[in-house]
Hints:
Blueprint: H1 2-13, H2 20-25, H3 31-39, E1 46-51, E2 57-63, E3 67-70, H4 83-92, H5 101-115, E4 128-129, E5 139-140, H6 143-156, H7 161-173
Antiparallel strand pairs: 1-2, 2-3, 4-5
Amino acid sequence: MAIRMRYAADLVLSPIGFTVERFLANSERHPDLKEKLSAVDLGCELLVAGFDFAGDGFIFTVEHPGDVRSHTFAGWASIGSGANEAINSLLRHSVNYTMELPRVLWHACESKFRAELSEGVGRHTVVKVADGAGKMDAYEASEALIDNIRGAWERGGAAASGWVIGRLQSELERHPGLHKGDNEN
């Protein structure tokens, strides 16, 4: 919040020769400035995911004007200009923490590819799996595999899911602890 306030002060108060202190001392005389300061947006969103000391996963977002929202129960979140496309895709497939990991990864890729239909979303895609033991890169899909998944999705959409899920399952089996029957990671 302090960073946002400094930015707002630089943007709104500095050009008219006010400091934050001077404004606060006279804020009742300048309701228009108060409104302008409140409207200042840093123009960024954050998505944070990780594990606590007990190994339990968490995910949250931080949005204007500093609102923190937990998405831990859902187990996923999306931000940015393609968020609606991605979220709709994940909801359509009822993605949740009980789903097998290869299926979750397929739907995560699919949601990312759908988000690319939105302005400002690039094609570069990174797929990583973290585990509760503190290893944040327990598995990372190769660029070639992501290209194959994208190609299968572009050619066959949902019909390609069987091939992709099978391929992801065999990839994950090479990484101990990631090929459990349910998605514990």
